[in-house]
Every structure is written in C-alpha cells, then in structure tokens.
Write a structure and sequence with these properties.
Elements lengths: L1 H16 L5 H4 L6 H8 L4 H8 L3 H7 L8 H14 L3 E4 L4 E4 L26 E3 L6 E3 H13 L12 E7 L3 E12 L2 E12 L4 H10 L8 E2 L10 E2 L16 E8 L4 E9 L6 E12 L7 H7 L19 H9 L10 E2 L4 H9 L5
Parallel strand pairs: 8-9, 10-13
Antiparallel strand pairs: 1-2, 3-4, 5-6, 6-7, 7-12, 10-11, 11-12
C-alpha cells in the first residue's frame, strides 16, 4: 500500500517536469500525461508494461523507476507477448520466450539431435505417441494450438502431429500404426490405430509377443501383461483365460475407458483364416485439452503414469465413458453413442492418498 502511494506520487511529480511532446510522437495515444496515468492505473502490471514498451516515452512515464515483476506477472507478460510475436512461444519450464523453427516436423525424434532445441528441461515432458514409436514433446502440441488460437503464422499445422508407419518384428509379427489429430471446441484430440498379426498365422507366437511387448493404450492401460500394483494394467479383452491360454477370444467393437486419463479405446480381435490367424486392431482416442500449460489436468494425466490429479471419474458429465470417442466420431460425421465401461486401475485410490500425503511410492 505504501509503495503504491509512493509510486503514484512520484508519477504525478514526473508529469510536472515531463516535456510536452508533439502529438506525432505518441500517435493515436497522444494524451496529456495525467490522462495516460489515470488510464494505466486500471491496468495490471503486465498489461501496463506491454503498453509501456511500445515506445520510450510511455515507458519513462509509466515506469520512472526500473520495472519489477514477480514470477506470476512475468509469466502473464510473456504470454501476452506470445500472442503478438508469431516467431516466439512461451516455455513454462524456464519462463522464457523461445524462437521456434518451421522445419520442426513429424520426425519428432530429431528434436533430440536438433541444435535448435530451446530448453533441455522441457524436452523431458513428452507424451507417449500412442501407435507411433516416437514421443510428442509438449512444445509441439503448444505450437499446434498456438496456430489454432492466434493464426497460421504462430505455430505448426495440425498435420505435423499425424503419422503412419509399418514394421515387422521377429518372429514374423507385422505391425501397422497410424495417428490422426483434430481440434474440437478448442481442444486437441488424437486418434491412434494399431494393427497386429503374425505372418504365418501362429496364435501362440502372437500371444507370446503381445504379452511381452509393452504397448500402451495410454500410460495406465497396456496390451501387454502389465506390471504389479496400480498401473499399467492389461486390457481385459487381451487377458489370458483358463480355457484359452494360447489364443484369443474374438471380439467386435469392444470398448472401454481409462478411469484416470481422458482415453477411450475400441478393440477388434478377428480370425482371418489359417494363413493370417488372429488380427488385433486397437483404436484409441485421447483428449489433450487446450495445451495451454503442461500442468493442465488433461496433459498431466496423459503424460504421467504416476499422478495425484483427480481421476477422470470425478468429471462424469463431460468425461463419461466413451465421451472422447463419441466426440471424435461426431467430428467425422458419425452420429453414434458409444457403450463403454470404466477400466478400473487396482490400487489407484491408495496410491493417490499416499501421493497426497507426500509419501514415497
């Protein structure tokens, strides 16, 4: 309160000695100093600084002493500058503006070797690229959403998140993967499809491969056998049964939803004859949100396996089972209502309680 009063008095005294400059210096904002100070008094510090840095005259009037912003005010200022500077984007990890490069492309793995990598710390926060081997850094999705919110010159096109690949693993496992993206109501959605089969139609080899190869539907659900405790757990459609230990049970459009993160899935297991055997097709649907901060609920629950965030089941109206898949289908022109069940994660509640209490896991 005292500092504010001193600043106000100091600024008023400055108007007595501040030279009356011609109107051309300030352009459309050529007002008497006392009027400018009355206007800026209603602005928060970041907004007042944005106005002041447009010219030296305004800066000297609004900030006769060196401007000092706390961390939150500095972040707000840089976010305002990000909107107006197409070549820069805001990094939440070092609280700086970084220059982005238009040649950043689908080859997301090349970021590790890229001399233009802006912040080593931020590169560690990446989303598992479901269906594709490489991961998606937070910078990538932020730039895609910056383009959506602020204009084409502010970021990367949506197609940069899309990819397609095909691989053959020993012993004869054929995998094809694809990833697609869209923005619905200001929120980024990803849709991944992975298909697996054994080239000689061996159900036993396919079963052994899937049980030992940890492919994730999300950070909490996996095709493989899974690990002990809370996560990840194996999709129920792929769990071995007592009557079918060496093969799969065919299913058509079997759907489920993760209880922790905004992920829906749909799985088909079909018998395609002795030559090809069983074919597993998994489609996953993920909602990443607006990607305005790596601390946002959607990104944190999608990118971290261990989190103390509220589970998805705490938001039943907007994030009910099957809602993410329905949202994607609606954007594709498919009007349907998905019947999904929650896939419970054992030990999740106990784990969250321990995290909230600060205990190590």
């Amino acid at each position: 309160m005292v500092l504010g009063t001193v600043r106000w008095l100091f600024q008023r005294l400055m108007t007595l000695v501040w030279p009356r400059l011609p109107r051309s210096t300030l352009g459309a904002f050529a007002l008497p100093p006392e009027i400018i100070l009355m206007i800026t008094a209603y602005l928060p510090s970041p907004s007042r600084l944005c106005l002041a840095i447009t010219c030296r005259t305004l800066y000297d009037l609004c900030f006769p002493q060196h401007s000092c912003l706390n961390t939150a005010e500095k972040e707000e200022l840089l976010l305002l500058l990000e909107k107006d500077t197409a070549s820069l984007y805001f990094c939440h990890y070092c609280t700086e503006l970084h220059r982005w490069c238009t040649r950043w492309s689908n080859s997301i793995f090349t970021w590790v070797l890229d001399e233009d990598l802006p912040c080593q710390t931020s590169d560690r926060n990446a989303l598992r690229a479901f269906g594709i081997r490489n991961k998606i850094p937070y910078h990538h999705v932020r730039l895609v959403m910056n383009r959506h919110f602020y204009g084409p010159s502010h970021g990367l096109p949506l197609k940069k998140l899309e990819d397609r690949c095909s691989s053959t693993y020993h012993p004869g496992i054929v995998e094809s993967s694809s990833r697609h993206a869209c923005i619905i109501d200001g929120k980024l959605l990803l849709h991944s499809v992975i298909t697996l089969h054994q080239s000689r139609g061996s159900s036993k080899i396919l079963r052994s491969f899937v049980d030992t190869w940890i492919f994730h539907a999300c950070e909490h659900l996996t095709l493989g056998k899974g690990k002990p405790s809370y996560s990840p757990i194996q999709l129920p459609e792929l769990v071995k049964g007592k009557d079918t230990p060496g093969r799969y049970v065919a299913c058509d459009q079997s759907c489920g939803s993760c209880t922790l993160c905004p992920t829906d899935y749909c799985i088909d297991i079909t018998w395609s004859g002795r030559a090809k055997g069983y074919v597993i097709k998994l489609s996953t649907y993920h909602q990443l949100g607006g990607c305005r901060s790596p601390s946002d609920w959607s990104w944190r629950t999608m990118s971290e396996m261990l989190t103390a965030e509220e589970p998805r089941t705490a938001f039943p109206l907007e994030y009910g089972p099957g809602s993410i898949r329905d949202r994607w289908n609606k954007a594709e022109g498919i009007d349907s209502r998905t019947e999904c069940e929650w896939i419970e994660i054992p030990g999740l509640q106990t784990y969250r309680q321990r995290r909230m209490q600060g205990d190590s896991v």
